[in-house]
Design brief:
Elements (H helix, E strand, L loop, with lengths): L5 H6 L7 E4 L3 E5 L7 E7 L14 H17 L7 E4 L15 E5 L9
Antiparallel strand pairs: 1-2, 2-3, 3-5, 4-5
The structure holds guanosine-5'-monophosphate and zinc ion (ZN).
The site of guanosine-5'-monophosphate has 13 residues, from strand 2.
Length: 115
């Protein structure tokens, strides 16, 4: 665990947060500042700073995050209406927490935009 990483602490259960799902590889919890009616983050329990720091051995783990997002979307009842998964990487994408995470956004028609 990265000792100063908030998402490592949430994944380890050291910080009280609204966790929806946890398994041996990943944790899903509500975003603290939602930008959509449903805004959930899915993180690996093991620290990876961003997509840029992914190694080949992380491929299945990052794929698992998408699978967990699918499970959570179904459990939350937004799978058929639709949802967006996004992974911000680096400054131009506005990444603010350097522990890789998938945003699951849903609950309304989402604007299609770049930037
Ligand atoms: P990024 O901009 O790095 O892609 O997204 C980081 C997200 O993490 C933001 O949507 C922000 O609201 C969320 N966030 C930051 N700190 C915390 C926290 O301590 N708890 C939770 N639940 N979400 C957080
Ligand atoms: Zn971390």
């Amino acid at each position: 665990m990265a000792s100063d990483c908030v998402f490592c602490k949430i994944a380890a259960g050291e910080i009280d947060s609204r966790v929806l799902y946890r398994d041996e590889l990943a944790t899903a919890f509500w975003d603290i500042h939602p930008v959509a009616p449903l805004h959930i983050l899915i993180v690996p329990n093991r620290h990876i700073s961003s997509v840029n720091e992914m190694n080949a051995e992380d491929e299945a783990l990052v794929g698992h995050l998408v699978y967990v997002a699918k499970l959570v979307a179904k459990e939350q009842g937004v799978d058929q209406a639709g949802y967006r998964l996004s992974i911000n990487t680096g400054p131009n994408a506005g990444q603010s927490v350097f522990h890789i995470h998938v945003h699951l956004l849903a609950g309304k028609p989402l604007p299609i935009h770049i930037g």
